[in-house]
Amino acid sequence: MDVAITAELTGRALSRALHATGRGVVLVASAALSLALLVATVLATAFISLGVGVLLLPLVTPLVRWLTGRCRDLAGRAGVSIATPYLPAPPTERGVVGWVQRCRSILTDPATWRDLLFLLLNVFVGFVLGLLPVTLLVYSVEGLLLSAGFWMLMRESGVDFWYGFTPMDTWPHAVLGALVSLVVFAIWVAAAPGVVAGHAYFARTLLGPSERAEIASRMRHLSETRSDVINIQATELRRIERDLHDGAQARLVAIGMKLGAATRQLRTNPDVAETLLVDARNATASALEELRCLIRGIHPPVLAERGLEDAIRAIALESPIEVDVIADVPGRLAAPAESAVYFALSELLNNVVKHANADRASIDLRHEDGSLRAVVIDNGQGGADATLGTGLRGIERRCATFDGTLVLSSPEGGPTVAILELPCALYSPRTSSS
């Protein structure tokens, strides 16, 4: 058992080192591209006064941002997330005036100058850190090959070859060279992932958003979510007004008319009056049921009385497909957050029933580290895309209002996995039916 575990750990370490070495090759290529794009950007900026740079800079900048974007992606694979720092591009006019406006927006964006500094330093940092894992791997393989007998071929050709500080001229020296190469190989396995991660942290220092960009991004996000909240509230108010007008109000008017007719028939025709009163009573029950449904659409009573866990279990019980619920929310959330999660999960289950062609789903709802995380999985046909419909986009907007996210994975053929995360605190012990 210990041998198997050791072999598995060794395999994982080798895999990580090989992946890091491959990323090192990419870093060497990025260093070469950094030099070329740095020279092109500097020349385009210098030629702005001559007019040529006005045309060149907007053409070179997308290439620079493409390269820095790939470096951010590479850092993300090393476990270092880097947000995009660029300010939103302002609207521009057509013609020469538009080119001048684009140049101005590029030059006034602090991220442009941080990109240029990254290009300058990456010529050296990217080349050295990218080449180091490759050099260690090649050097260790070279030592193993020489120690396996290639040193004899070198001797026969009249070349005195040294590996490290060891002359490769006898078998004892070859064995010593093999030990050195194994040490180099071990250093490569241990150091390669760290070297590439070091470049990722270097990239985050220069390619991450500045304080100004973070503030601008935050303001833009707040503006968008505020607009979404206003639109959602207006839509809900219109829906409530329409439901009241077309449903409960119409029934109440009909009840009033039947009661009036019953009053007129009470003395002259008691049987007809009794029938009208029975109809009015039945219409009253229907109106009450419609009002209860309307209240559930605004804020479900089970959510207010029993909390989020029981409310989600109630949704699952009412679903026409089998839904397994695992919930661990040891407290109550703020009412707006609970309502947002409830309706988001309800909409996700409705999408499963309507579009996924599934017969089974599961909900895993947990509160950990200050965030509520819900994972909805179904065994349907997949192919869900948030960009093609309003339902999933509505869930995304509802989550974004609370700084939450919705991540969707739905390959063709399934399964579909929707992960909803909402940062929120618990403020009271939960109320449960158990």
From TrEMBL:
Domain of life: Bacteria
Domain Putative sensor residue range list: 28-207
Enzyme class label: transferase
Keyword Membrane in annotation: yes
Catalysed reaction equations from the record: ATP + protein L-histidine = ADP + protein N-phospho-L-histidine
SUPFAM superfamilies (UniProt xref): ATPase domain of HSP90 chaperone/DNA topoisomerase II/histidine kinase (SSF55874)
Descriptive protein name: histidine kinase
Organism, scientific name: Micromonospora humidisoli
